[in-house]
Amino acid sequence: MARVYLTHFHPDHVFGNQGFDAGKITAPEGVITGLKDLGNSFSDAMYYIARDWMRGTEVVLPSTAVIEGIEDIGGRRLRLMPRAGHTSSDLAIYDEISGLLIAGDLAFLDRAPTTPHADIATWTTTLGELNSIDCNRLVPGHGPAETGKRAIAQTRDWLLAIRDVIERCFNEGLDMTEAMAAPLPAGLQQIALARYEFTRSVMHLYPKLESAKLPSVGGREK
After folding, report:
1. What is the pTM of this model?
2. Would you tell me how many other CB atoms lie within 10 Å of the CB of residue 101?
3. For 109-146, how does the pLDDT look when each residue is reduced to its tens digit (9 = 90+)?
C-alpha cells in the first residue's frame, strides 16, 4: 500500500480507514479539520443507528495533509486537486497516466446528491473544472464508474434544479413542509432517492435562505 486518500469528511467515505496504516493516510487540511470537529459526532450517530455493527470503529485522523500538485507514487502520476462544494473541503484525483478521474462525492451518478454541508455555487464551479479534464474514465462517489462524464452533468443539473425549486418555494412564502412536497423536474424524478434527498436538501438549504433573506428579530442589522 502506497497511500490512502480521503476525499472528504463524511463517514461513509472515512470510517474504516483504521484498517490501513495510519502513516499512509492523507487528506486536504480542511478534511482533517472536519474530522476533528465532526468525527466523534458522526461516530455517535452511527453507533445509534448501527449498534454493534459499529463496534470497534474509530475516527482516525490523516497523518499528512494533501496540497495542490502532482504526486508520483505507486507507479502513477496523480494530480491532487483539493476543492470544495459538496463539503467545505473535497479532494479530486486525476491519474495522468491512465486518464482515471476520481471525483469523490463531487459527482454522483444515477443517485441523488446529498447536501448537508454543500455550497451549491462553489460545487457547480468545481464541477466545471472537473468537466474540463480529458479523462478516460470517471469514478463518482456514488454510482458506477463510466467512460463519459454523465455524472458531472447529472450532478450539476440536479443541484441547479433543486436550488431553483427551493428558492421559488421560499419566495412564494411556503414553509419547509410545503416545499418538501414541491414537484421535481421530470428529468430528475427517476434518479435513485430523488424525493428523499430533495426533502433533506430542503431541510439543509431553507435555514440558509431564511438567514440570508429574512430580517432579524427586532429589525436590528445582522
Report:
1. 0.93
2. 25
3. 999 999 999 999 999 999 999 999 999 999 999 999 99
In the chain, which residue ranges form alpha helices assigned H by DSSP? 11-14, 29-50, 120-131, 150-171, 176-180, 194-213
| 40 in Cβ contact with 18 (< 8 Å) | no
pLDDT of 183 above 90: yes
Alpha carbons 78 and 71: distance in angstroms, whole number: 5
List the grid coordinates of 210.
431564511
The residue with cell 434518479 is 191
Backbone angles phi, psi at 95, to 5 degrees: -85, 105
Residue 20: which residues within 8 A CB-CB, separation 6 or more? Answer: 1, 4
Contact of 85 with 118, CB cutoff 8 Å: yes
What span, in angstroms and rounded, lies between the C-alpha atoms of 218 and 184?
A: 36
- The radius of gyration of the chain's CA atoms, rounded to the nearest angstrom, is 19
The residues pairing with 104 across neighbouring beta strands, listed in sequence order, are: 140
DSSP 75: T
Side-chain-facing half-sphere of 1: CA atoms under 13 Å: 12
